[in-house]
Design brief:
Helix content is 34%, strand content 30%. The strands form three sheets. The protein has a seven-stranded mixed sheet, with helices on both faces. Helix 4 packs across helix 5 and helix 7 runs parallel beside helix 8. The longest helix has 16 residues.
Length: 285
Amino acid sequence: MRRRLKARVTSMDSAKIYNSYDIIGDIAVIKVPNDDIESAKKAAETIMKLYPSKVKAVFMQTSAVQGDFRVRQLKFLAGENRTFTVYKEHGCLFKVDIERCYLSPRLLFEHQRISSLVTQGEVVVNMFSGVGCFSILIAKASGSKVYSIDVNPTAYECMQENVRLNCVFDCVVPLLGDSKEIIHSQLQGVANRVLMPLPELALEYLPYALMALKPFGGWIHYFDFQHAAKGEDPVEKTRQKVVVCLDALGVSYSFGCSRVIRSIGPCWYQTVLDICVSGLPSKFL
């Protein structure tokens, strides 16, 4: 892919395109420096020729993932002009509208890692579930009950369809709305484990993750975006930010696995902390 792109666009652009494209189902999404439409079209043609039986459409991402619904702006480049596709991961199927929902194939390892930690009989609250990747993979792996929350109506509709596609009706409960409000009104004290896969809101929503845990505590999987200059540890910077919040709330806790998931830009990283909560103050009970 890199070699073919280099023959058609500048070497700098070819490297950046190669490192920043995703294939979701049968749709490729590319990022092109400075939104150079000519380079984008050449890259789209190259991808379509390289994966003729796999890629049916190519889009260029023209904005960051943003807003409460976690969506990005896309420009159609080649193939079939549609944004619905079916993405396959770890034996599960996920219907997704890539323009109106968030799904990242770059979380494939993290989906598997967390689903492998859940044991049968646990109750899980997924505060930002999107189309249901974490939720459905957990249900398939353990048969555990998962309350799967998202505020985006399109993601919620896809999640409902994905529950049917993967036959996890008895395990996954799709819920539409703000997880703060849903936890406060319906899910206080129910969970052994809480997922927070929305870095932009994780710190703000952390008290509600605690509220969802059972009185004896449990696990919180906390995702973040962290800036770290040369010589700084992005995981440690994330940990210190969370420590300040948890100490202020009077929570007893320890950290399990803490890791960098991926680089998302110069000196920027996506991180995850596994937080074991062993004691909750009375205000959360």
